[in-house]
Design a protein that fits this description.
By secondary structure, the protein is α+β, with helices and mostly antiparallel strands. It contains three helices and seven strands.
């Protein structure tokens, strides 16, 4: 798959809330996932660790109210998109999270993802 094809598939999965399916289909076994300073986990390596990170995030959520994902912007073997989530975390008020997501593709698989957002305080 080209970078554009991978980008389009990932955005489609995300818009349907199919994050684990996206990981299993599009991620390299050696994926590296990077979060900003202040996030619960700064870096995770390997597909199983990234799937577990997603499960841990879901376990922090009381209710998802909605999600928006922009169309991807592709250059070379990279693409980015913006994501906005309307979510209530356990023990916290309803919140809108926004982030810029950057992905690197090699041989038709995502080998690196990095998320840019302001972590919640407290």
């Amino acid at each position: 798959m080209t970078t554009q094809e991978v980008a389009n598939k990932l955005v489609g999965y995300c818009r349907q809330g199919q994050f684990e399916e996206a990981m299993k289909d599009l991620y390299s076994n050696d994926i590296v996932s990077v979060e900003p300073d202040g996030a619960p986990v700064k870096e995770v390596r390997g597909i199983q660790g990234v799937i577990e990170k997603g499960e841990n995030f879901n376990n922090m959520v009381e209710e998802f109210h909605g999600m928006e994902v922009s169309d991807p912007i592709v250059a070379d073997n990279f693409f980015s998109c913006a994501m906005k989530m309307d979510v209530t975390f356990k023990g916290a008020p309803r919140n809108t999270m926004e982030e810029v997501c950057l992905y690197q593709v090699n041989d038709g698989k995502i080998v690196r993802e990095e998320f840019f957002f302001t972590p919640m305080q407290g």
